[in-house]
Design goal:
This protein has 11 helices and no strands. By secondary structure, it is an all-alpha fold. It is globular.
């Protein structure tokens, strides 16, 4: 991958922002290529931003993660399962559908991951679904009150995120809201659920890079990790603050406008 520092920084910032926002990272990463003619970001970039995002979410939610992990360990050794222990098990359960789906459909996802037409439509459609989920009237509950049904629904929603343009965080947030979680609970569970997926993806791509990477690529890798981590951390912080005050409407509008832009570019090129 040969990119100058400006392009590489731009892409790292872009991915760092969109990894946890409900706006679809694939919809954004296709734009520089289509608008500016930039080459595909490649394996180095993918590894770097995933590791950076992982560092950010683990750092930001470190207290929650420690609490959940200790509760999970207590349940594993037969000391009982409290509310935190149940949430930890729900994260494990909700990870399974996407993990299995990723292994089974990885080739198909790669094939359509750069389809502007598909990403444009899914960006709009799932943005509208997020709007109705946020407006859904019902009792809003904290994360520690969720049940196994909610975990299963969110888990299969994450499987839907294999469709390019859906947004993993967007679809899990949407499912959580429809299941009655409050905004902060839906967002935090979505972020926690991202950790095993990012770890698996990072390890998979990292093994590929160990086999094919060069010393120059490793230098770029560490730079992109730092950029992605800083941007992702800030993004998580301000996102949680924003949604408690104004909800998800700004993200819905943004998704629809982005999808319309992608569709306009596509149809102008095929006309």
């Amino acid at each position: 991958m040969e990119l100058d520092i400006f392009k590489f920084t731009f892409l790292a910032v872009l991915q760092g922002i969109t990894e946890f926002l409900p706006v679809s990272s694939s919809a954004h990463l296709i734009l520089p290529k289509e608008l500016f003619g930039w080459e595909d970001q490649g394996l180095v970039f993918d590894v770097a931003v995933h590791v950076g995002s992982l560092i950010a979410v683990v750092s930001y939610l470190r207290r929650d993660i420690a609490t959940l992990f200790m509760a999970w360990m207590r349940s594993c050794v037969g000391k009982g399962t409290d509310k935190d222990g149940r949430v930890a098990w729900f994260i494990v359960l909700a990870t399974i559908p996407a993990g299995v789906g990723g292994l089974l459909f990885n080739d198909a996802v790669e094939q359509y991951s750069r389809s502007m037409l598909l990403i444009g439509f899914t960006s709009i459609f799932f943005g509208i679904v997020l709007y109705f989920a946020d407006k859904y009237e019902g009792v809003r509950k904290p994360m520690d009150s969720m049940n196994i049904k909610t975990a299963i629904i969110i888990g299969f929603a994450q499987l839907v995120a294999l469709i390019p343009g859906t947004s993993r965080s967007g679809i899990t947030l949407t499912a959580g809201l429809f299941c009655g979680l409050d905004r902060t609970a839906a967002a935090k569970f979505s972020f926690l659920l991202a950790i095993p997926i990012i770890v698996a993806s990072g390890l998979f791509k990292g093994l590929e890079m160990i086999e094919t990477g060069t010393s120059g690529q490793w230098a770029i890798l560490f730079y992109a990790i730092a950029v992605s981590a800083i941007v992702s951390f800030a993004c998580i912080h301000y996102f949680l603050s924003l949604i408690t005050r104004i909800g998800f409407l700004p993200f819905v509008i943004y998704r629809v406008l982005l999808g319309l832009l992608l569709l306009a570019i596509y149809f102008l090129r095929v006309a």
